[in-house]
Amino acid sequence: MKSHAGCQPFYNMANTILVGAQWGDEGKGKIIDVLTEDADVVVRSQGGNNAGHTVFIKGQKYVLHLVPSGILRKNKVCVIGNGVVVDPVSLVGEIEGLRKLGVEIGENLFLSETAHLVLPYHRELDAQREAVKGDNKIGTTKRGIGPAYGDKVARTGLRVIDLIQPERFKERLQQKIKENNEILKAFGAKPLSFKKVHEEYRAAGDYLKPFVANTVTLLYKAMSRGDSILLEGAQGTFLDIDHGTYPYVTSSNTTAGGACTGSGIPPHRVDSVMGVMKAYTTRVGGGPLPTENAVIADMLHGMGREFGATTGRARRCGWFDSVATRHACMVNGIDDLAVTNLDGLDTLEQVRVCIGYRHEGATYDYIPNDVAILAACEPVYAEFPGWKTPTDKARKWKELPVKARSYLKAIAELTGANLAIASVGPGREQTIFL
Ligand code: GDP
Ligand code: IMO
Ligand code: MG
């Protein structure tokens, strides 16, 4: 008989949600990897393989898309939760790629039965919808994320639980391909072959079956044992479908609340929220970025930095925007901050921080909801003296230049949360705890 999770008391008080406090790519993967040392379980709760989380360990680079970044440490349980949208073929490729790099993946990875599937027609529709938008395109990763979440909300999606039941999967996939081929034809795109898609995805289903679990009860049991859980956010606050710069957003709730619905962990079991932010700002894709600055972008790209981990696109770059991060702090309830990429600013004479926006005579100390207004806002800057010293070798707070410390303190204060971690390089060891 299958037992229900029961109603044991919870003993653990250290479950943390980690979110991106900007537009994604804040360095979440690196910080998750560092924090996983003290966690038992790492959970992805939203997004899909649009995410690209980079971790460097002893010079080896790993880029995680669907698999939680905790997989790189031994004896950690990793969960792909119900709120994630999963392209099964992509997940198989990712697992295989990690195994080739010597990462052990077996009973340490669980995939929720109720996670929705991303299928080839979602990817095709993503590309077609972008193409018709022309100059107004979102600049998606073309991974089919929007159409897959669209099917979920319309209650027409297929889930992992369907994928692993061959007869059911075949029947539903056939119906979905028939329907979606009509839409693709209307776009003037090539229809998909059911036979080809079925063969490929059926094989992926067979491969993934051993990982499939009821992850809600699994997490409940883990919490009952006192395990500590780290929820690995994907994307960032301003890509959130509700709180981001709509329509230039992704299709999931990337903010802290989404971590609960996307995992089944009750809100009152969450002990803290950590916000990860770069010491400057980046964004990839379309939409407003008030502090965008060509000089900063050229400097960072010239150092070989700020190219997308998923699509390889050059990221747009700008000064740190404390109006944005303060808003992120409010909407996520961020307690602690991890500031990454401090070393990216090491060579500058002066460092600027946006402390407000101006638009048609009005001043804003929050992000206006109308993207047309946000796009037309003029940032108001405060200036800080540059430290003009390499920081990448610093391992302790006191080893950072005084001016770099002042800058970090100022951006944490403007954001309104406690500075807990400063990161001065991509490696695990390049991390300063305060
Ligand atoms: P994520 O999506 O939030 O996990 O971030 P990405 O991995 O997409 O992008 C962050 C990039 O910054 C990656 O290339 C990381 O290796 C790198 N990174 C993270 N922290 C630091 C840091 O403190 N300094 C430097 N130089 N690179 C960092
Ligand atoms: P991580 O987890 C940065 C952006 C895309 C596009 C918009 C919508 O690595 O921080 P989508 O494919 O989701 O429909 O694209 O969201 N985007 C990201 N930008 N980091 C990400 O993830 C992103 N995931 C999606 O560039 O602007
Ligand atoms: Mg990324």
**Termini Cα gap:** 49 Å
CATH topology assignment of the largest domain: Adenylosuccinate Synthetase, Chain A, domain 1
What structural class do the secondary elements suggest?
Answer: alpha/beta
Shape: globular
Flag low-confidence runs. 1-13
Rg to the nearest angstrom? 22 Å
Task: Give the topology, please.
Elements: E1 16-20, H1 28-35, E2 41-44, E3 53-57, E4 60-64, E5 77-80, E6 85-86, H2 88-100, E7 109-112, E8 116-117, H3 120-133, H4 145-153, H5 160-163, H6 166-186, H7 194-208, E9 212-213, H8 215-225, E10 229-232, H9 256-261, E11 272-278, E12 281-283, H10 294-302, E13 316-318, E14 320-321, H11 322-332, E15 336-340, E16 350-359, E17 362-364, H12 371-376, E18 378-385, H13 402-415, E19 418-423, E20 431-433
Bound molecules: guanosine-5'-diphosphate, 6-O-phosphoryl inosine monophosphate (IMO) and magnesium ion (MG).
Residues 20, 24-30, 52-54, 56, 309, 340-341, 343, 423-426 line the site of guanosine-5'-diphosphate.
Please summarize what this structure is.
The protein has 434 residues and is of the alpha/beta class.
How would you characterize this protein structure?
There is one protein chain. A hairpin with a 2-residue loop joins strand 3 and strand 4. This protein has about 425 residues and is of the alpha/beta class. The N terminus is likely disordered. The protein is about 30% helix and about 20% strand. The strands form five sheets. A ten-stranded mixed sheet has the order 9-7-5-2-10-1-11-15-19-20, with helices on both faces. Strands 14, 16, 17 and 18 form a four-stranded mixed sheet that branches. Strands 3-4 form a two-stranded antiparallel sheet. It has two domains: about 325 residues, Adenylosuccinate Synthetase, Chain A, domain 1; about 100 residues, Adenylosuccinate Synthetase, subunit A, domain 2. It binds guanosine-5'-diphosphate (GDP), 6-O-phosphoryl inosine monophosphate and magnesium ion. Magnesium ion (MG) binds next to loops.
